[in-house]
Amino acid sequence: MEKKEAPVVDWAKLTQEMECLLRLKTSPVAYKRLEKVEELDKIPDVMRLNRKASFCQAPALARMGGMIVGLTRDNLGERCARICGLAATSEKEVSWEATAFANTWFATTEEASKQMAVYPLVPPGEAIVLAPLGSVKFAPDVILIYGNPAQMMLLMNGLQFKDYERFQFFFIGEGSCADGLAQCYTTGKPALAIPCMGERAFGTVTEDEMVLALPPGMMAKAVEGLQALRERRIGYPIMYLGPLCDPSVVLTQIYPDWYSH
Fold first, then answer.
1. The pLDDT of residue 89
2. Rounded to an integer, what distance in angstroms lies between the CA atom of residue 113 and that of residue 100?
3. Domain count, the chain
4. What global pTM score does this model have?
5. Is beta strand 68-72 parallel, antiparallel or unpaired with respect to 46-48?
6. Which residue(s) pair with 70 in the sheet?
7. Is position 62 within any domain?
8. Phi and psi of 178, rounded to 5°?
9. Is 2 part of any domain?
């Protein structure tokens, strides 16, 4: 049987449409895990970091700086590397992390170990790359979209416009790359995350931002849903009516029989 080629996706067009519909402040980010370091050299204009970093700095460089960022195991600390696809779990790492987190986020090593037992991990490869989705030169594994709660709400409404499903999201504590990126990568489902302290301190995520990790195959579905909602006059920004006004004027325009039921 002849193997069919994967359809070519116009990421620039989809990105432009989503940015317009949601008025995003920064570009959606494409993430890809690579089996071999040599694959980085095949990506045009990739910037290989020559320093230590936290994973959450890479999306910031992509979405704010427009950079294509390549990372290897030498760039990231153990925990970042394990969650984001650059290192396997070892007994040494489990022991270190449990002790470190017992002195910070949890009461005891036992409590810290409970977190480690449940958070998802991207399978390890030798390199990862992140880039602005609108100019991406590789097929992404996950798309990271940063926005405020109203933008995230409408984005998920767009995903639910057809083929409805109830979304479930998680909070492991410190380490939102597990709640977003790794959760999406391992399940193939959209994953909304509350950015952690690391993302805020090192990744310059602002206080009003959340992040949605999206399977690449759902990007077009999200845009189509947002466009359909816009045609029904539901979109961003959401106009304020306020608590002192009679809402019936607006509600009956959207739901004509609102007060007859």
1. 86
2. 11
3. 1
4. 0.93
5. parallel
6. 48, 129
7. yes
8. -75, -45
9. no
Peptide bond into 237 cis (omega under 30): yes
242 dihedral zone (left: phi>0; alpha: psi -120 to 50; beta): left
Name residue 33's beta-bridge partners: 128
Please give the pLDDT value at position 151.
98
Other beta carbons within 10 angstroms of residue 82's beta carbon come to: 24
- pLDDT (0 to 100) of residue 1: 47
Report yes or no on 3 lying in a domain: no
Q: What is the mean pLDDT of each run of 10 residues along the chain (261 residues)?
A: 65 98 98 97 92 94 96 92 91 88 95 93 97 96 98 98 96 95 98 96 95 98 98 92 86 80 62
Q: Which residues contact 121 (CB under 8 A, 6 or more apart)?
A: 82, 83, 85, 89, 178, 182, 186
Nearest to 66 by CA among 39, 43, 47: 47
The domain in which residue 74 lies consists of 11-260
Q: Is residue 211 part of a domain?
A: yes
Please choose, from the candidates 121, 127, 125, 138, the residue with its C-alpha nearest in 3D space to the C-alpha of residue 177.
Answer: 121
